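User: Show me a protein chain along with its predicted structure.
Assistant: Here is one chain, sequence first, then structure tokens.
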Amino acid sequence: MRARLSLWLGAVLVGALVLTALVSLVWTPFDPTLVDPSRRMQSPGWPHLLGTDSMGIDVLSRIMAGAQICLFVGIVAVSIAALVGVPLGMLAGMKKGRVGRVVMRITDVLYAFPALLLAILLAAAVGGSTLTGMVAIGVAAIPVFTRITRAACLQVMSQDYVLAARSCGTTWPTIARRHVWPNIAPLVGVQASVSFAMAILAEAALSYLGLATTITTPSWGRMLYEAQSKQLFSHPEQVIWPGLAIALAVLGFNLLGDGLRELLDPRLREVQ
């Protein structure tokens, strides 16, 4: 029951985020980038339901447009991490000798470079941008996928049916395709959901520091920085809206990941 509740709550929050991003592609109440000093700092009401910021931009429109960046960064960052980390983890799990040790030592080196440090290095080299944030977040998440995939792969490789396949002369790629990947795919999916939440939070933090999304692009982290530095005490609602959006997005993906984990892992299922 608890797994289903987490799964449904997470699915609702994630669905709302995706729906907001899709709607904002074709419609927003106002232009999320149009500066109009004549309507700056308006309180929530009609027609600006969440008010306007210090530049006269409609806050609701910026929140809706920011959902696009949120999803885009999460999808690309998690894809980078999964496409690199999962094959490395399978390689380390199926090849336990020197190859596996080399892969894990490389993973340990990547652990020393968190997303913030990588973003700073990339920003110094090519300038801060959305691409910089995506690459930094994706590379920083590679070790997580590698270690989780390796642990799951080791468990599958110890099963009798895999040992039988190896004794019959089945090649390593065939074993990986037929036996390893189908058994570890649910775990990778759960980790992708959790990593998506971390990517959203990391992008917001990098945008807050000016290392990811530029000032001309609607971003929840950038909105939080602008409101905190200018209207924290005079107009606290300017901080609440982007902060609430970040919190709900992260909560949605975390609940979705927890629900999937408890649903797919038989050891965590509740006894009816």
